[in-house]
Amino acid sequence: MTFKTLDDLPADLNGKTVLVRCDLNVPMNDGDVTDDTRIRAHLPTIRELAGKGAKVLLLSHFRRPEGRPRPDMSTALLVEPMREITGLSVRYVEDCQGPEAARAVSIMLPGAIGILENTRFHEGETTNDPALAEAMSGLGDYYVNDAFSVAHRAHASTVGITAHLESFAGRAMEAELKALEAALGKPEQPVAAVVGGAKVSTKLAVLENLVGKVDHLIIGGGMANTFLAARGVKVGQSLMEADLVPQANDIFAAADKADCTIHLPYDVVVAKEFAANPESLRTVNVHEVAEDEMILDIGPNAVEALADALKTCRTLVWNGPLGAFETEPFDRATVALAQTAAALTKEGSLVSVAGGGDTVAALNQAGVARDFSFVSTAGGAFLEWMEGRTLPGVAALQR
């Protein structure tokens, strides 16, 4: 995977303007950013460019205005939070293209930051309109994409603009792409993948892609129940997609052909109701689930076996929890296996890459997010990468 990075830009950017595609679509409450993770991810890129004397223009969408201006979705709301977080001079630019925006940029000082108005105020953003992409490019001398989380979108600000400006990966994008290459592009063998979540239907393409690329495929969450049912296991009242049993059998067949071991739990944590610490809670062999019970987590014996499998591996990619981790005690399997993966990573025997919103939350809950080799906050882009798809925003940087 070859792409230009900030190292390929001139060392002195005084008098130059750099358009940086960020993901500033952060949650806010009463004018305050409630989670600034995405903003902080872009700080190395922003500070490096500003330190080289560039005028740094931040391109981003903010919520879903559906192609029309809305004051409650203006990036003007982000100016004060950006000033506080970056400690730099930050100004709001009333559009992301056109003469008014150009005039505002012309009076900015070297090293200053400008937040351009919401790209999605223009209908042409989501349709990758060539005219809008060209108009955006007219504000800058170089383009930097630092937002892997929107790399799966073929939008004007992620793809179209690269036809008009020399394009580079920002530091966050660079780190993401290197981590993904290490996880599935050219990984150290053997490779394990943990795929969890509620439904097989949401991750069928992921499983179909991974089964031919990894040595161990660990399936957890509600989706494991469909695979158990395909093996003739009665799962009681558990979440299960009976219509996808044929696809599950196809994945079993593909795994046999690819010499990939699919790991399913042989002991499980069940209850008659989905609630915190229910009285009906018990741990049983997977063949002992009663008709009125539901599987809500993987059992301790299964977790121990999975931990032993991880100890034989050199690379791990993780997406999704093993159980209903939001509710105690159904977080125990996810926490325990995550802690094992983190310990193996810290001792240097495992490269661990994880991604997706639920996954990040689960790793934070386990207190090990910082111990993984790389944790991506991207949702859809990470999932599409695991499906083996070409991400338009990444392909545009490779051209």
Provide an overview of this structure.
The chain is α/β, with parallel strands linked by helices and 399 residues long. It folds into 2 domains: 6-174, 3-Layer(aba) Sandwich (Rossmann fold), CATH 3.40.50.1260; 187-386, Phosphoglycerate kinase, N-terminal domain (Rossmann fold, 3-Layer(aba) Sandwich), CATH 3.40.50.1260. The protein is 33% helix and 17% strand. It has 14 helices and 17 strands. The strands form 4 sheets. Strands 5-6-4-1-7-8 form a 6-stranded parallel β-sheet, sandwiched between helices. A hairpin with a 2-residue loop joins strand 2 and strand 3. It is elongated, with a radius of gyration of 23 Å. The N and C termini lie close together (11 Å). The mean pLDDT is 94.
Brief digest:
The chain has 399 residues and is an alpha/beta fold. The chain contains 14 helices and 17 strands.
Secondary structure topology:
Layout: E1 17-21, E2 28-29, E3 32-33, H1 37-41, H2 43-51, E4 55-59, H3 79-86, E5 90-93, H4 99-106, E6 113-116, H5 130-137, E7 142-145, E8 166-169, H6 171-185, E9 191-195, H7 204-210, E10 216-219, H8 223-230, H9 245-258, E11 261-263, E12 267-271, E13 282-285, E14 294-298, H10 300-310, E15 315-319, H11 332-346, E16 351-355, H12 357-366, E17 374-376, H13 380-386, H14 392-398
Parallel strand pairs: 1-4, 1-7, 4-6, 5-6, 7-8, 9-10, 9-15, 10-11, 15-16, 16-17
Antiparallel strand pairs: 2-3, 12-13, 12-14
Helix pairs in contact: 8-9, 10-11, 11-12
